């Protein structure tokens, strides 16, 4: 008999509302839930593939322990916990808390209890070494607001906007940045039909660019130049919001002087976009009445991501694109606590230079967290404080960290590597223990993580919430646990008290979060933990549970409050360091072709999620590999055809790629997704047609890196491309 249940897809951060057909206790079919009020029945191919993912033959049904031959044997999870507890205790006793680090990746996000309990354990052992994927993603998103100051009421939302700017973001595929996460392609189409004027800056004619009123297709990595040019036009033509700036911002004259060298002609020469298009982009964005400008991963991974994000904040401030007193608050909180926000600036705060100091490249903790690009070196560099043990949750350093060869050396050098993964990922293959987790439909879920994504100008933009109970049991005979249960078990085995708070490290600040000491005799339930995490939420979790298809919990009276009298804070339009970087950009010599005439740029595929999904047959019908997309004319010049293999070489390393044509690409580029390939030298890694290649291998972490977040060049990488044969 088939039963159909509503649930939440957790294959990406969009948390789409789905319907799952369950037969004999197994999920057999997934589709978008048309009864859901905001997703319009949307689910992407990855959501449709959940049944195959759950029943995948390579899925780990038992935790694994590395054996003497370098292979792995199944181990009961209780025994794995006991052994890991003993080994980590020995490391702590000998080397102290700093020797134990944690890295939480993409798939820690959809499991709301995972990170809080893991951090409770990190607190209990006293280690500050907490790393996330944020600093190898878009660290400028956190750094720039620290330097610019924040507008307490937030940005003008998508709803009601008549203009928008996307810089190196492609929400139809990635469900990210600015455009609502619930079915972004629909929102883009709809808004453009209703007259929204979209400006897209992307060296590739992305899905977003196809809908744009203005598409600038500059040389990759020239975003600060292009944005400075746009700011200059706006100031020159007096299109900025003078009253808003007068009242709320400082540094206008310095900004005006700093962008002065970036005339449309100068920008045109440097970024290779027509001068009149720069003027048009400025007029379209500043000429609209409401909207916002955001960047995605592309420019954040090219050089000077902080500066790009900073100039975008300046652009939004110049155009007054922040919510004003009396306006309706888009999301007064659903599973988050109710907020009272004011139409006022809060002064800049330090972007870095506080907290834990790394022993590498003078890096410190930052507004985006500890620099993950330095963690491999922290593991390799001997001496007091050396990291000896690493715990990963839902992350894959071997696929995702820059400088894969160094990461490989670091993983091998660890005394203890433990990862919680659904398969023998490249990292899991090197791990001492791999903890096999329950998969999404086997765990309760809730929309809280997606609601917290506000700093990324996403979130829901409305008080939406959904809860989903576990729908199916794990496969018969399996021994899988929830991520949080592993860290709870470690705490218990080590005799440590664990304390969980109702706050999110990456989300909006929760004032006075509730604090819970976990009962270390009787384990909590996942639902019990969800109750703790949502304590004080505007809508009680119990109320959300009464709406299994998800609901919008309107609060029609929540409006933005006026500025407090005496508030003297100002947004900073001309942070010294950022203006210094801009001055460097203005006089930087033009990059020359030299030995590396091509540039490799980042991009994503709908059918995979970073390193996940590429082993699911339904998702690999189109691409098994991560294709090296090139302009057809470049392919002709190189004498290669679709499906041919090329060698892609940077001045650091070389990888192979399977070429595919893409008309909408700028010439001189290779556009290639990351997260592919395998352990260097392994048989799978050599099979480029089926495993793809790791683009992270191309760049070192100790050159061309951001001085504050440590992020190295991960887009706009100088490369050489040559036809080659695979043996
Ligand atoms: N060159 C280059 N490098 C990049 C990027 C780029 O564009 N170019 N992008 C960067 C960005 S934006 C990010 S966010 C990082 C991502 O960095 P990571 O998060 O470290 O990498 P992922 O590949 O997302 O790793 C996800 C892991 O979780 C496992 N997994 C899948 N589902 C589950 C689950 O349900 N539970 C558990 N426990 N595990 C699961 C997968 O098998 C996989 O091994 O990579 C960064 N690296
Ligand atoms: N299907 C799918 N969805 C995902 C992911 C996935 O792997 N697959 N990953 C998730 C993650 S971890 C993240 S962080 C988000 C990222 O979300 P997005 O940032 O929207 O990611 P992309 O789709 O790669 O879009 C980046 C765009 O930047 C462009 N670009 C590259 N270099 C430059 C440059 O120098 N300047 C400019 N202006 N543009 C440039 C690329 O051509 C590309 O179109 O997506 C998330 N969603
Ligand atoms: S967009 Fe993300 S959440 Fe939605 S169905 Fe696809 S993978 Fe699942
Ligand atoms: Mo990301």
Please tell me about this protein's structure.
This protein has 727 residues and is of the alpha/beta class. Among the domains are: 63-138 and 349-435, Rossmann fold, CATH 3.40.50.740; 155-322 and 571-582, Dimethylsulfoxide Reductase, domain 2 (3-Layer(aba) Sandwich); 592-723, Barwin-like endoglucanases (Beta Barrel), CATH 2.40.40.20. It has a 7-stranded mixed β-sheet with strand order 5-4-19-18-17-6-7, with helices on one face. Strands 28-30-29-32-27-31 form a 6-stranded mixed β-sheet. Strands 11-10-9-13 form a 4-stranded parallel β-sheet. A hairpin with a 2-residue loop joins strand 2 (17-23) and strand 3. The termini are far apart. The mean pLDDT is 96. Bound molecules: ligand MGD (2 copies), iron/sulfur cluster and molybdenum atom. Residues 133, 137 line the site of molybdenum atom.
Largest sheet: 7 strands, mixed
Query: What is the averaged pLDDT score?
Result: 96
Uncertain regions spanning at least 5 consecutive residues: none
Give the helix tally. 26
Number of strands: 32
Major beta sheet, strand line-up: 5-4-19-18-17-6-7
Given helix and strand content, the structural type is alpha/beta
Strand content: 15-25%
Q: What is the overall shape?
A: globular
- For the record, the CATH class of the domain at 155-322 and 571-582 is Alpha Beta
- Report the CATH architecture of the domain at 155-322 and 571-582: 3-Layer(aba) Sandwich
Rg, Å, rounded: 25 Å
